[in-house]
Specification:
The chain is an alpha+beta fold. The protein has helices at 13-25, 86-108, 126-129, 155-168, 170-177, and strands at 33-34, 37-42, 45-50, 53-55, 58-60, 67-71, 113-124, 140-151. A hairpin with a 2-residue loop joins strand 2 and strand 3 (45-50). Helix 2 (86-108) crosses helix 4 (155-168). The relative contact order is 0.12.
């Protein structure tokens, strides 16, 4: 019986395991820096370009064109609805991070997935955001993620994969443990 890892769920498992081995041998390869450049368009509308990043000991230049992401507020919040709100991007970030982790862990564990859907809901009270109450926080009061998963593993194994994914998710970590954010301002 072969124990050679194979690509599964669209994840190149042999390449992933080779990356893990390379990082074990050279821990400096684990240091990554992702970057985004945002520019104000008008009103509450802004556009972010994401292209290069530093990782695996070098600058990555594989993206020929930047990914462009528009953010705006809906008209009820004085925007024009040119894109999701920044807070909605956080919901996308947690959903996509957990989903990527789930697919990767399933592949490593030899589990084939046939369906993964997540619904993410976040509750915000504008009293905090608008400075109308010092008793209400500015951001989400709660975020809920509901997964629907189908695959060739028992339900308890799929639930365990989600728990492993949660424990390793960088976005979950930042949302639940916080991270320092330094802000510098230059004027011209």
């Amino acid at each position: 019986m072969s124990t050679t890892p194979v690509a599964r769920n669209g994840v190149d498992t042999p390449a992933l395991l080779a990356t893990v081995d390379a990082i074990k041998g050279t821990p400096e390869l684990a240091k990554f820096q992702f970057r985004a450049v945002n520019q104000w368009v008008s009103g509450t509308h802004s556009r972010t370009a994401i292209q290069g990043f530093y990782g695996a000991g070098q600058e990555d230049t594989s993206r020929a064109e930047p990914f462009l992401l528009d953010a705006d507020h809906p008209p009820v919040l004085v925007g024009d609805g040119n894109g999701p709100t920044p807070a909605e991007y956080l919901l996308h970030a947690i959903a996509s991070c957990l989903t990527a982790g789930l697919a990767t862990l399933a592949s490593i564990n030899g589990i084939s997935l046939t369906r993964v859907t997540s619904t993410v809901e976040g509750d915000i009270d504008l009293l905090g955001l608008l400075g109308l109450s010092d008793q209400v926080r500015n951001g989400y009061q709660a975020i809920r993620v509901q997964f629907v998963i189908e695959g060739d593993a028992a339900p308890e194994e799929l639930r365990a994969l989600v728990e492993q994914t949660r424990a390793r998710s960088s976005v979950y970590d930042v949302l639940t443990n916080g991270v320092s954010v330094d802000i510098d301002v230059s004027t011209v």
